[in-house]
Amino acid sequence: MKSQFTVEKHPWLIKYFASRNPVHLLVMILPLVWYLVSISNFGSSTILSTSIFVSLGVLWWTFLEYAIHRWGYHSKYPFKWMHDFFGSFHLYHHIDMSDRRVYNAGFFMVYLIAPVVLFPMWLMTQSLSMTAQFGLGTIGTYYFYEWVHFLLHYKVFDGGYLGWIQQYHFFHHEKRPDKNFGNSNALWDILLGTYDEGYKKYSMSLKAQATMITAKDERIDIEHA
Ligand SMILES: [Zn+2]
Ligand SMILES: [Zn+2]
């Protein structure tokens, strides 16, 4: 059955909601980072308070990464349009892992979500500078996650942190889309009961390996040889 996600029907959406690679994404998020730095008032905060708010931001992203993936992208939606719209980038990514246009989020994804996810901290502290410090922790870890996801689809890693998280992520892709939602860490899967250690015995299929960016580039080279 051919899937009919919104992004397949309207590919121009990719331009606004996804980015080609993390470097393109960096250009998009720099104004936000610059704004957060400009209001974070590091000069009049203690090192302790800055460390606490930045660390809370780091932790907050690890949770958001899990929550957005589990409840945002893999939910059973009551309406088809919701499935098409919310699943457009991620469920589509599950169906076609070789489409690198949707590996990373884009401008609107970041600028629509950022105010929503930073608002609770502002509500609790009523402080723009603390919220900005928290936001820098969140966006820094978010950007790290974007690199990790890009690299996991770039080439096959053998061991180390990237080898471990690649096995974890591709197990989710190929075997259990209802488990192992963390894309850069396993913390929230463990805490919230979706950790499946089956990934330790899993090895990536040749079909999945063939979707890697480097595999595709090699294929293109062969085709053009
Ligand atoms: Zn992926
Ligand atoms: Zn998924």
Characterization of this structure:
This protein has eleven helices and two strands. It is mainly α and 225 residues long. Helix 3 (22-39) runs antiparallel to helix 7, helix 4 (47-73) crosses helix 7 (128-152) and helix 6 runs antiparallel to helix 7. The protein binds zinc ion (2 copies). Residues 93, 149, 153, 169, 173 line the site of one zinc ion (ZN). One zinc ion (ZN) binds next to helix 8.
What is the CA-atom radius of gyration, in angstroms? Answer: 19 Å
The largest beta-sheet arranges its strands as 1-2
How do the helices and strands follow one another from N- to C-terminus? HHEHHHEHHHHHH
What is the number of E strands?
2
Low-confidence segments, given as residue ranges, are none
> What's the average pLDDT?
89
Beta-strand content estimate: under 5%
In whole angstroms, how far apart are the ends? 35 Å
Overall body shape: globular
Secondary structure tally, helices: 11
